[in-house]
Amino acid sequence: MIQFSRFTLDNGLRILIHEDRSTPLAAINLLYDVGSRDEDPESTGLAHLFEHLMFGGTSEIPEFDRHLQLAGGENNAFTTPDITNYYITLPAENIETGLWLESDRMRNLDLSRKKLEIQKKVVTEEYFQRYLNQPYGDAMILLKSLAYKIHPYRWPTIGRDVSHIKNSGLRKVRDFFYTHYAPNNAILAISGNVKPDKGFSLVQKWFGAIEKRKVATRKIPAEPEQKEARRLVAEKDVPVSALYKAWHMGPRNSQDFHVMDLITDILAGGESGRLKTHLVRKKKIFSDINAYISSDIDPGLIILHGKLMKGVEIEHAEESVRQVINDLKKKYPSSPELEKVKNRFESSLILTNTSILNKAVNLAYYELLGDAEMINREADTFRKTDRKMVMDAANRYLTDTNCSTLYYNSSRQNSR
Fold first, then answer.
1. Strands (DSSP E) along 106-193, which ranges?
2. 112: DSSP letter
3. Whether residue 387 sits in one domain with residue 298
4. What is the C-alpha separation between 357 and 190, in angstroms, rounded?
């Protein structure tokens, strides 16, 4: 049971503090309720760009990392379609340094033209390295733009096109910062050897004077129901062909979320997953195959992808996947199989929440979803999933008309 205290500042900043006396450390996690889904379709990549810009310093503190290192701390950040998240771990006795640094860049980030140009070059290079020059790097870009037609999930967090990053002007970047990176659009979670009253007092000291801002109104178009199968064939210079499939599912807070999570574990959880057992080890159709849910706040995707063994026709591979899925739709999973998956999930959850950083990250995220107390209910919710729920959800979502398929063919193999 993870116990925590909840506070809210007058400026709207929500605060969650979990005291853990077993460690000399503390973790600070600052979640901003802004991700790539909040971007203009013609100017994407800004949320991820800010992941970089926030480390550029301010007029008050030009070098963010130097002060943190002197305090014995480490930090990093990540961006998703839904959130931008910054975190720090450091000795608990130095927690005030971390709060000072985070409050400073929330208050007055240095958005100079020079620093913007530097980070635009960094992100542009990252775009080429991760997506355009990496084998299979653009596969998810192709798959998501096939699965989504109007929702912002159709582009990656780094941006829909590298030109959007290159053309980001200073005025647009500043507007994005002041309408999203605000105390009333953020959740601060602390986990570690920090008493709640002391932690709140320090947060009040450093964040209390930051004024509320007018946060941009979120206007995200709902993705229409997919009613027919979609298919895209791409030929790329990669070692072997690969198959990618995506099915639409409900939002993160839907009743079926945990059922679909369990289904992907049945299909691809560990070495005993059905896809790996039947299609990798027994039939040797794929060299590797995986399935997972995107875990997006808005209706997301169930994604399956696998690399084919040389000489295997991609149509045959797809039919083999369909057979495994149809078996799940026609026959209840056995009780031992279901229990194994549930036990694996519960063990993973317990292990994850031994880390003060993970607890801070999860507390902030569950609070964004509606209630930080969800961190203590996840295992029970997952365990309540039964065999009928699995079969019903598989039949509801894993249909051909709800599926987008990408054939990522190897031009090397096809030229032989």
1. 186-192
2. -
3. yes
4. 8
Residue 348 confidence (pLDDT): 93
Q: Check whether residue 116 and residue 155 sit in a common domain.
A: yes
- C-alpha–C-alpha distance, residues 406 and 354, integer Å: 39
- Contact, 226 vs 293, CB < 8 A? no
| 332 occurs within a structural domain | yes
| Intra-chain end-to-end CA distance of the chain, in Å | 59
User: Are 17 and 161 found together in one domain?
Assistant: yes
Enclosing domain of residue 60: 5-207
For residue 407, give the nearest of 141, 142, 131 by alpha carbon: 142
Residue with the larger pLDDT of the pair 416 and 355: 355
Per-residue pLDDT reduced to its tens digit, 161-214: 999 999 999 999 999 999 999 999 999 999 999 999 999 999 999 999 999 999
Q: What is the mean pLDDT of the chain?
A: 95
**Boundary (domain end) residue, out of 172, 207, 242:** 207
pTM attached to this predicted model: 0.95
Q: Is 7 helix (H, G, I), strand (E, B) or coil?
A: strand
Chosen domain end from 176, 192, 207: 207
CA 228, distance to chain mean position in Å, is: 27
**222 in a structural domain:** no
Contact 56, 116 (CB under 8 A): no
Percentage of the chain exceeding pLDDT 90: 93
Of 229, 115, 92, nearest to 174 (Cα)? 115
